[in-house]
Design goal:
9% helix; globular; Porin; mainly beta
């Protein structure tokens, strides 16, 4: 038995001894290295607008109410080489103007901003310049949104329909040293980001914003801004292509110009602003025929607005964190200075910060046409919610 066990152990150990005497296999290739990974930094952020609204005006809409996800903005920023970057902001909203088909009346997504930015000037003396191409900010609306809480209502210029907040084209911005301000200029198609280009004419605009106390130690005074802007646009005639029975195609454009002045301060404790804006539009009468010749009629409109958003407890005491706020605004739009009609818009309410990125507003908004102005009279109570992420 002892001899048998010794023989069995020897047989088991024999393959190990043989393999130990074999030379190492040097012909087998080494395993390939793991694939290289490329990391592209992407900055993702967004904002969500929601509200509950209750109509308090007389008429068929009285007592109507709804929960409304007004929209969501999803923003992606990423580098595109030396001094270049890309921004894409997706606008998620509810389509309500499409054909009467359930498929077209749901939630849709479209681009609000989509542009390449190149920082062509970076100076140690404080001069900085950039250029943009794509779907970009229009001349003044985003500037006003830094003073007024956009989540409660659109800025006066946008609400009055002067132009869209973004458009396709090119832009440049030059920032002055010593925090003295900036100049921003654009060349855009004109119809706005929600429409394709409709004619061959372009719109030209520029904004000059000065902050003369930008280096002041006073927290409120340093934010004081004085802004002037102009927008020179044009649209094609409705008879540009001519037609059967018409005198012929009309190749000239119709004016679409705007300009304004804005003054304001912005601080977490107090943000306020006032503005005066004017617009000039032309429309056509007649059928462009011999019996009914085309005629061009100009009209001039004017907008006055003022607003304030105040955190009274924080304004009285810098150390206070009590999140209650007050908001108030008044707009007066005169669609045509040649007539007596005008439209008043009043907004007032309370705000409450849930945290640094989320806030609520309980506000009342009223639109009142006067002296024959054509507009729907509304009285609406809102509970607004904004969430930044």
């Amino acid at each position: 038995m002892k001899t048998t066990m010794i023989v069995a152990l020897g047989l088991l150990a024999l393959p190990l001894a043989i393999s130990a005497q074999q030379p190492a296999d040097t012909t087998r290739p080494a395993p390939p290295p793991p694939p290289a990974t490329v990391s592209i930094p992407v900055d993702f952020s967004g904002v969500l607008y929601m509200n509950f609204q209750y109509r308090g005006d007389a008429g068929p809409a009285k007592s109507s109410n709804k929960f409304d996800l007004e929209r969501a903005y999803l923003t992606f920023r990423m580098p595109a080489g030396d001094r270049a970057s890309i921004r894409i902001t997706a606008d998620v909203f509810q389509q309500t103007t499409a054909p009467n088909d359930a498929f077209y009346r749901g939630w849709v997504i479209r681009a609000k901003y989509a542009y390449l930015q190149y920082d062509y000037l970076k100076s140690a003396t404080g001069w900085n310049g950039l250029a943009r191409a794509g779907l970009l900010h229009n001349v003044v609306i985003d500037h006003a949104e830094t003073f007024w809480p956009r989540w409660i209502s659109q800025t006066p210029v946008e609400r009055a329909g002067f132009f869209a907040s973004s458009d396709a084209g090119v832009a440049t911005q030059l920032t002055f040293p010593n925090k003295f301000g900036e100049i921003y200029a654009t060349i855009v198609n004109g119809p706005g980001y929600a429409s394709r280009e409709t004619d061959r004419f372009k719109d030209y605009a520029a904004r000059l914003s000065l902050t003369p106390f930008g280096r002041s130690d006073n927290k409120l005074l340093k934010t004081f801004a004085l802004t002037g802007w102009t927008y020179i646009g044009a649209v094609a005639s409705s008879f540009a292509a001519g037609g059967v029975g018409q005198i012929g195609p009309v190749g000239v454009s119709l004016p679409r110009t705007r300009s304004g002045v804005f003054v304001g301060i912005r601080d977490p404790r107090l943000s306020a602003g006032a503005e005066w804006d004017t617009r000039n539009d032309a429309r056509e009468t007649g059928a462009n025929t011999i019996a009914s010749p085309r005629a061009e009629v100009d009209s001039t409109g004017r907008l006055l607005a003022g607003f304030a958003a105040i955190k009274p407890f924080q304004l009285m005491n810098d150390q206070s964190t009590f999140p209650l706020g007050l908001v108030a605004r008044w707009d007066r739009l005169k669609p045509n200075t040649g007539t007596d009609g005008y439209i008043n818009t009043v907004i007032g309410g309370l705000t409450w910060d849930l945290n640094k990125k989320t806030a609520l507003s309980l506000d009342y908004q009223e639109v009142t046409p006067r002296s024959g102005a054509i507009a729907a009279a509304t009285k609406t109570y809102f509970l607004h919610l904004v969430a930044n992420f």
